TrEMBL record:
It comes from the Bacteria. It holds the Pfam family Sugar_transport. The keyword Transport applies. Belongs to the GRP transporter (TC 2.A.7.5) family. GO terms for molecular function: carbohydrate transmembrane transporter activity. The keyword Ion transport does not apply. It is found in: Cell membrane. The chain crosses the membrane at residues 6-24, 31-51, 57-78, 90-110, 116-133, 154-172, 184-202, 214-233, 239-261, 273-291. Its main location: membrane. This is Sugar transport family protein. Keywords: Membrane, Sugar transport, Transmembrane, Transmembrane helix, Transport.
Amino acid sequence: MSILVGLIPAIGWGLMPLLTSKAGGRESNQIVGTGLGAVAVGIIATVVTQTHLSLNFAIYAFICGALWTIGQIGQFVSFNRIGLTVTAPLSSALQLVGNSILGVLFFSQWQGPKHLMIGFGALLLVVIGVVLTSKVDPNKLGAQKGNAVTVKDFMFLLATTIGYWIYSSFPSMPMVQGASSTELFLPEVLGILFGGLVYSIFTKNAGVLTQKETWKSALGGLAWGVAGLAYIFSGQMNGTNMAFILTQLSVLISTLGGIVVMHETKTRYELRYTLIGLALLVIGSILTSFAN
C-alpha cells in the first residue's frame, strides 16, 4: 500500500504537463488552470484534515507558491519552443542539479568526501542523460531540426528554474521550521493561483478565468495537487529517500507521454538516445538520495 501511495506523485506530476498541453490555450491559461485545480485539492485537504493555519507560516508559503509559478511558466513556454519530450528531462535535471548544490551550500547536505563523491557522480550521470535526450538526428535537414535546444532556450529554462529551486528549498528554510506540510499546502497553492493571475494580467489576458482552456487545464492542476498531497503522505509512509526515488518516474511518464499523447516525432536514432538518457537521468536522480 505504501508503494502505491508513493507512485501517486510520479503519476500526477508526470501527467500534469500532458493534461495542460492537451488543454491548449496560452501559457496563462495553463498556469491559472493549474492553480485552480491545485487550490481545489488544497481546500478539500485542509477541511478533511482539519488543519489549523498559522498566518506567519501562511504568508511565507503563499510567497513561495507564487515564486513556483516562475518555474512552471518557464516549462509551459519551453513546451511550445522545444517540445515536451526535450523540456521535461532538461527541466528535471536543472531542478535536481540546482537543488543539490543549494543543499550542499546552505543546508549541510552531502557531508564528507564519500557523500560528496556519490552526489556529484550522480549529478554527472544526470547531465550526461540530459545531453543524450536532447540529441538531434544528424540526418535531419535544417527545417526538421526545429526542437534542437539553442543557448537561448537553455538560458531561459535555467533562469525560470530559479522559481523551482526556491520552492524546493522552502521546507528547509528556518522561517517555516515547526510547520507541518499540510499546514503549508493550501497557502502554497493559493500563491500559485495568484502568481498565475498576475502573469495573465501582464501578458494581456485578463479574461483568463472566462476561457474554456483555463478550466480544461484545471485537470492538470488537480493531478498536480493530488500528487503534491500524496508526496507528503509518501514521505511519512516510505521515508524521505524512497518517496523522492519514486517521484523520479514522473520524467519517464511526461517524456514518453509527449511522444505517445502529444505525437512529438523522434527518429529511431533520437528515440534510442532518449531512452538511454532517461535511464541515466533516473539512475542519477536515485543515487543523489544515497548521498544524504
